[in-house]
Amino acid sequence: xxxxxxxxxxxxxHSGHVAFFEEAASHGELYVGIGSDKTxxxxxxxxxxxxxxxxxxxxxxxxxxxxxxINKGSGVIDFLEEIKxxxxxxxxxxxxxxxxxxxxxxxxxxxxxxxSKRVPHGxxxxxxxxxxxxxxxxxxxxxLAGGWMDQPFVSKHHPGAVLTISIEPDYEFxxxxxxxxx
Length: 182
Fold this sequence. Notes:
Blueprint: E1 3-8, H1 15-25, E2 29-34, H2 37-44, H3 52-60, E3 65-70, H4 80-86, E4 90-94, H5 100-109, E5 112-116, H6 129-135, E6 142-144, E7 147-148, H7 152-157, E8 161-162, E9 165-167
Parallel strand pairs: 1-2, 1-4, 2-3, 4-5
Antiparallel strand pairs: 6-9, 7-8
């Protein structure tokens, strides 16, 4: 039986990932390299929703997957050590994961390179983590409590009550947020 290798982050595991794994496994035994938390932070400039340990547990639990691990490298080709050790017959990617660098690596290593189309299972919708992140925005709101100003220096100049305000951003808060205090 042929060995099939896939690699990715698989954060926010969804039906699109499962359909991708099933399609890849239709070509042979499926081995999955998972991007580490560190790699996701470097490539996507954000922390993963699920830790690499959680993602590994979920991916290994899928019946289409023969084995899975956390890739040891970093960057777009974080799986270099693992692909050389596994020696797959096929490297399977979807159109989002395709890159000339991956294709060239497969040529050099004598691995068949297959680019899949994103095909959902049955009547399920097409899913991608990027699309889910857009759909599942958690609303953020910052409430600041009011009260009476009780600082002698400030009260000397502007005595009285402090206002309560509520701020709800109208842009992607996670991409542009930070916290500071005084």
